[in-house]
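Side project, low priority. Logging it here so it doesn't get lost.
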Amino acid sequence: MTFDPNIVFMILIFAAVFTAGQAAFGLFSVATQKRKVNQRLKIADKVDGVSAMVTELRKQRGLNADGRRSGAVRWLSNLIVTSGVPYDPKKWAAYTVAAACVGGVALAFLTKNPMLFIVGALAVGLGGPFIYLKVMAKKRDTAIGVQLPQALEIIVRSLEAGHPVPTAISLVGREMTDPIGSEFGMAADEIAYGATLEQAVERMSERCQHPDIDLFAATVRLQERSGGNLTGLLKLNAHTVRERLKMRLKIKAASSEGRMSALILTLAPFIALGFIMFSSPHFYGDVIHLRFVQIGLGGCAVWMFIGNMVMRNMINMKL
């Protein structure tokens, strides 16, 4: 049996390229992981003293000097805090104005109607930041649910080693990345600043708005008021949080077919509409002014919205 030297040579080249790619990816992943430092530790290098750090951390989260939410619109304040996006009103205003101008110009150019500039500007200027904050809040909420079991394990092991509770909480703030690292770090800083453990954990629960953090805060509050073995309670808490995370992942896997169906059914009409408008611009352009066509398209949009809401309720399972 003979082997073609060209085939062997090509196999060796493929193996070399594949190995080099794997090595480069591994080095990039390690370097990226080492560069991940939570936001609190970055701020700690720029300010002096616990008081200045607590004040700066609260300011960047959109909180007042007492660690409470600021702003007349409560739901917007809650969204800003839970999103974790650094709060900078001047920068946010500049980004919003720029996005509104781009949205208005784009809509006016596509429709060739300058009067729609205001509609596009309002839609992008108001809806864009809201959607961005919602996406970031959802992303942060998911990350907290994944990181919290590990954080509780670190606290439990630190307590078993004989460390006090504030030291165990500050250890999480030093060793873990965002979002859980900064949240526990802020709690440790508030304890060092003069707050009690119950107050610091309660404020962390208010900032995160996460059911597992609420459970952790309730556990600490129960131990503070009635006593007991905090290590044992946190072990049980960590087990409960981990099991809830597993259940969420199982629900996500079980509902993946429904979510994909909803995505396909939602995108298909828009993809078809875009292809028709690109290939035959006059297909709808010749009849779009007819009242019957306008009512029909509006009814299709309303019916699609109702269908999406029904599918969302079918796959949106709460724990």
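Brief comment: The chain has a mean pLDDT of 84.
Revisit when time allows.
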